């Protein structure tokens, strides 16, 4: 099956919007701007209209939670029994805690529990609890420090609800697994929760070097296999490969240049990439709120593997919606990495079929 036709793109391509946490969710952008100005009514309307589209709800709530908690607190005071207000307030406390104010852990955890009681079927408060468990680890003393769903660049990394200064402390696996299962009990294919778990598992045996049998690969394969045929979790094995690369390159086991690392050259990596790309050709979800993150992971993999045709098709779909992950891995400027990869993949004549 040939690649899908590129989305309409102006003759001159725009620079990537690398700071836009909303990705292409215009309604979310409006609500977030209002929240930043202390007005919560647009967020109220947005979350109410989102309903039980759990992946979209999680994405929107996480992005709204990046704003200062004043408006969320005002909303909760005005409507103390509103589950959306309680959930947003809880996630703002989670965000503040994992961003470097660990003294707020107990308050954030209690707020998530209250929100979970108000909306028993919603996985979003449990996602907040999962983030807290990953942050706290084993008391914060012997846990590994990684950049999985967090980033180093505080300004650039305001995408999909995770901030650049966040330090994620992994450990306490029994609690982590229990909370992950609470999320899955409400939405088995929860996109953010699976990404968090992949980043978590990729850290295990960080100093052991490359291992094609590492458990993160098993987990990602299991998640993809048990999900429905049209689930975006089909891309998760590609995500796992990139997350393990991040860990190995950070520890010095692989080259800091992903394309020169050889990490995408073995048979398993090629099969994972082919399977994910074929899934995209057949099942592409234009409406999934986090599809651009998946497409960036897949484009990154095809670039690293030297698969120019596939990379070109993906970059046409991505257009200017670059994401921090995985272009920042292991310690790269994501804007420069994305732009250079896109230019190589598309080439000078890539847009000749789309004149201005």
Give structural notes.
The protein has 356 residues and is mainly α. The chain has a single domain, classed as Alpha Horseshoe (Serine Threonine Protein Phosphatase 5, Tetratricopeptide repeat). It is built from 16 helices and 2 strands. It has helices spanning 26-36, 41-50, 54-64, 70-78, 83-98, 105-118, 124-136, 173-186, 191-202, 215-226, 236-250, 267-283, 291-304, 308-318, 324-327, 334-346; strands at residues 144-146, 168-170. It is globular, with a radius of gyration of 20 Å. The two termini are 28 Å apart.
Structure at a glance:
This protein is mostly helical and 356 residues long.
CATH fold descriptor:
Serine Threonine Protein Phosphatase 5, Tetratricopeptide repeat
Looking at the overall shape, the CATH architecture is Alpha Horseshoe
Main β-sheet: number of strands, strand sense, barrel status?
2 strands, antiparallel
Please tell me the overall pLDDT. 85
The proportion of residues forming helix, as a percent range, comes to 55-70%
* Structure class: mainly alpha
What is the spatial order of strands in the main beta sheet? 1-2
Number of domains: 1
What's the total count of β strands? 2
Strand content: under 5%
Order of helices and strands: HHHHHHHEEHHHHHHHHH
The level 1 CATH classification is Mainly Alpha
Low-confidence stretches: 1-13, 138-172, 348-356
| CA-CA gap between termini | 28 Å
